[in-house]
């Protein structure tokens, strides 16, 4: 026997067969419907003769069953085998959902290529190669398209064709690097969703979908060696979770099926209804209202920053003028503002001849307290800012750095008043 019978008969989960070989806890069967881990789909779970199957691996085209404990049976014995139906069905649904998503991508994304997929108990990951930016709005469209396809109850089928024939077809998602289990002896297994003259379970011909019309072309055709349901309606709820970038040129789409998809929808519903209540608006207006509030917040933040900047400049101009080794310095306490804002103000001071003329200072030192004391030093032809900062940190601890014209430091073992006193 060669190949995976589980892929050909995914609904077969209880069977009796003979043990053809044993090596420790590794068991070979005369016939096996256990799916061996391959192409991103995990191995089946279950039992062989009441002993738990911990793993199933494909070695030289044959499934090798790894038991959780030493077998009680021997080579030649007949054993009753049971595949964990709950996990098998989850994998069938999840794997078919990934094909449905790819079919949606065919219609929404440019230059689409298949980069592989992976199933775990929490989510399904589908890697896409595309030149189309996949933003939040595109995720929503992919989610909607996938769920419409589930609702439409499209048929799912699989057959084998020559690899050369499959390569010539532009409609086939084809990646020999990630789908090695689909290829054998010059043949390739194709999984097809939808197709010409498609009919539902009662035999009624399916009508065009609400989402823009059903064509006679299949929704998706892909080289695949995994297990699948017979109809998209068996997939159940699908929820796109998000996206990431696992590598150059790849976008990873994550989705959930079944209970975890329902859990995610529940979380999203709670968030939307909570926003609706807080904003006092309808669900349809939540996004617009949030955008309006965000714009108001940004405008207020800009106004606040402008006022704080004006306040820092005013405090610099009102700072104390001191003589340091024959050089006039300006020392100012600027209060509880950000270091970056103070640095910008000091930089403008050393660049603005009007400010320098008003104070007659060649060096300005601004001392503030944003969570902890800090100092920003600016110099315009006077002592180097980094030298001033080094002398200050030698006196009060901490550290910092910068250039001859602008430097900043913090982490002092002193209060703002003590830092200022050290300058004087």
TrEMBL record:
Residues 1-267 form the Alanyl-transfer RNA synthetases family profile domain. SUPFAM superfamilies: ThrRS/AlaRS common domain (SSF55186), Translation proteins (SSF50447). Keywords: Aminoacyl-tRNA synthetase, ATP-binding, Ligase, Nucleotide-binding, Protein biosynthesis, RNA-binding, tRNA-binding, Zinc. InterPro entries: Ala-tRNA-synth_IIc_core, Ala-tRNA-synth_IIc_N, Ala-tRNA_ligase, Thr/Ala-tRNA-synth_IIc_edit, Transl_B-barrel_sf, tRNA_SAD. One of its GO terms (molecular function) is alanine-tRNA ligase activity. Residues 197-218 are annotated as: Disordered. Pfam families: tRNA-synt_2c, tRNA_SAD. One of its GO terms (biological process) is alanyl-tRNA aminoacylation. Belongs to the class-II aminoacyl-tRNA synthetase family. This is Alanyl-transfer RNA synthetases family profile domain-containing protein. It comes from Natrarchaeobius halalkaliphilus.
């Amino acid at each position: 026997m060669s190949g995976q019978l589980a892929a050909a008969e995914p609904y077969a989960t209880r069977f009796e067969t003979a043990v053809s070989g044993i090596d420790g806890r590794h068991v070979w069967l005369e016939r096996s419907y256990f799916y061996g881990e391959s192409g991103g789909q995990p191995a089946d779970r279950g039992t062989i003769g009441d002993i738990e199957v911990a793993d199933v691996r494909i070695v030289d085209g044959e499934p090798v069953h790894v038991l959780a404990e030493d077998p009680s049976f021997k080579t030649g014995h007949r054993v009753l085998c049971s595949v964990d139906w709950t996990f098998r069905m989850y994998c069938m649904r999840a794997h078919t959902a990934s094909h449905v998503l790819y079919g949606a991508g065919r219609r929404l994304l440019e230059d689409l290529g298949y980069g592989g997929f992976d199933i775990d108990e929490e989510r399904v990951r589908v890697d896409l190669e595309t030149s189309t930016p996949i933003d939040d709005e595109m995720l929503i469209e992919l989610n909607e398209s996938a769920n419409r396809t589930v609702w439409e109850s499209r048929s799912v089928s699989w057959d084998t064709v020559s690899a050369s024939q499959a390569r010539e077809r532009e409609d086939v998602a084809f990646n020999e690097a990630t789908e090695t289990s689909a290829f054998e002896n010059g043949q390739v297994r194709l999984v097809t969703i939808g197709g010409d003259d498609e009919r539902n379970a009662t035999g009624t011909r399916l009508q065009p979908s609400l989402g823009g019309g059903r064509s006679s072309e299949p929704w998706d055709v892909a080289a695949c060696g995994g297990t699948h349901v017979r109809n998209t309606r068996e997939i159940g709820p699908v929820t796109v979770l998000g996206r990431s970038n696992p590598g150059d040129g790849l976008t990873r789409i994550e989705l959930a099926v079944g209970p975890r998809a329902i859990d995610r929808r529940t979380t999203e519903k709670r968030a939307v209804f909570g926003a609706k209540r807080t904003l006092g608006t309808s669900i349809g207006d939540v996004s617009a209202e949030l955008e309006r509030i965000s714009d108001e917040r940004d405008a207020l933040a800009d106004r606040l920053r402008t006022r704080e900047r004006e306040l820092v400049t005013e405090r610099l101009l009102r700072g104390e003028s001191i003589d340091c080794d024959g050089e006039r310095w300006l020392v100012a306490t600027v209060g509880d503002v950000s270091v970056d804002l103070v640095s910008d103000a000091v930089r403008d001071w050393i660049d603005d001849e009007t400010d320098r003329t008003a104070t007659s200072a060649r060096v300005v030192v601004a001392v503030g307290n944003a969570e902890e004391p800090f100092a920003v030093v600016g110099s315009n032809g006077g002592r180097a800012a980094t030298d001033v900062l080094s002398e200050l940190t030698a006196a009060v601890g901490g550290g910092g750095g910068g250039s001859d014209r602008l430097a900043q430091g913090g982490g002092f073992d002193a209060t703002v008043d003590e830092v200022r006193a050290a300058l004087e």
